[in-house]
Write a structure and sequence with these properties.
This protein is an alpha/beta fold. The chain is 28% helix and 24% strand.
Length: 379
């Protein structure tokens, strides 16, 4: 990948202004990784997985007060739009944008950038998933402010996480030379990006961890809407040509019809392939906040409180001589466990999942088997 532009010199006051900064939250999802609690009609961002709020509610909350609800947009699916609006009544209804079909992240980015640019041609936008756990919010907002300052210098910004283990489930970013320091941004670094790396095998992940010059790719981005649109026109012109009719349609009665017409024929392509691996304007911001994409039931062992035996209990549960297990009752039924060790047991009104700790990534095999059996009632 080309070296990032040499003009990176972000600056940020100690109390940065969020004026003209918008957040766009990507909130599609198929409801497979947290089955049986999550379903196609209620994927993980719309259910309560960690804490008392749903994940999308928590995502919006952690942006405030830096980005207020009136400057938050959601890109979701047509099937999930109504529930998303119900869960987020403080958002403008028209800011919940429903993709008629999923066409991967490049289309999502382009769509969001076109809308934000129509709302405010001077806007800087932060793009982030709806289903991550990030704490504390103040540290995250501080990193976002640095990203905004970096983006205002004309760069495309991605956010990296200092690896805690040789994880093989994340993409990696190799960092290059440090960018100029950011005023008031203690412990937050800005680097040019040397390259993006696909999800590695264990041996390479161990090398990346030992090197200290790699970051996990958080899938969070920041850029000026005008800049990312210009970069997409340069590096993925066919996509921008296809979406061009949307600019005039936004805010009119033709929006849904035009969106459906231009989206249906699109090829699927990720923003990484369409832009991030081609542009010469990429920087990575590394902050100090805790981050997890919460990709399976096993990940909850890092986020939910346990008893003295390492047992997580939610709902009506009774654990006798149990260790290192998760008991979650989503109905009024009681889960009683005796002598469980390293098991996750999740009970909903119509399904029970029992899976050993360490194998919860295989839950998608259950979903595939149910699809094959035609059990749409359980999906």
């Amino acid at each position: 990948m080309p070296n990032a532009a040499d003009s990176v010199s972000p600056s940020s006051p100690s109390s940065p202004s969020s004026e003209k900064v918008y957040a766009v939250i990507m909130a599609g999802g198929s409801g497979t990784r947290f089955w049986p609690v999550s379903r196609a009609s209620a994927p993980k961002q719309l259910v309560r997985i960690v804490g008392d709020a749903t994940m999308i509610q928590a995502t919006v909350a952690r942006l405030q007060p830096y980005i207020p609800p009136e400057r938050v947009l959601i890109v979701t699916t047509a099937a999930l739009a109504a529930e998303t609006r119900r869960q987020l009544p403080a958002l403008k209804a028209e800011h919940v944008i429903a993709e008629p079909v999923g066409r991967d992240t490049a289309a999502c980015v382009a769509l969001a950038a076109l809308v934000v640019h129509r709302i405010d041609p001077q806007a800087t936008m932060i793009l982030l998933p709806a289903d991550q756990v990030i704490t504390p919010a103040a540290d995250f907002q501080a990193a976002l402010a640095v990203g905004v300052a970096t983006a205002k210098a004309g760069n495309l910004v991605t956010f990296g996480i200092q690896p805690r283990s040789p994880a093989t489930g994340y993409g990696y970013i190799e960092i290059g030379a440090a960018a100029d320091s950011v005023t008031g941004a203690k412990d937050i670094t800005v680097n040019r990006v040397a390259r993006f790396v696909e999800k590695p095998d264990l041996a390479h992940a161990e090398q990346y961890l030992a090197a200290g010059t790699y970051r996990w790719n958080a899938g969070i981005f920041c850029w000026q809407a005008a800049v990312v649109l210009s970069e997409l026109r340069q590096h993925c012109g066919w996509l921008m040509d296809a979406l061009a009719p949307l600019e005039a349609a936004w805010g009119t009665s033709r929006w849904t019809t035009v969106l459906d017409a231009v989206y249906q024929p699109l090829k699927r392509i990720s923003i990484d392939y369409a832009l991030m691996e081609k542009s010469a304007r990429i920087c990575v911001v590394t902050g100090t906040y805790g981050w997890d994409d919460v990709g399976s039931w096993d990940s909850l062992y890092d986020h939910l409180p346990t008893d003295d035996q390492g047992v997580i209990s939610r709902g009506q549960t009774l654990a006798i001589d149990c260790h290192d297990s998760l008991l979650m009752a989503e109905t009024g039924q009681l889960i009683a466990g005796i002598g469980l060790n390293g098991l996750s047991v999740i009970v909903t009104k119509d399904a029970i999942l029992v899976v050993p700790k360490g194998r919860s990534q295989e839950v998608k095999a259950v979903v595939e088997a149910l699809k094959a059996q035609g059990r749409s009632d359980l999906l």
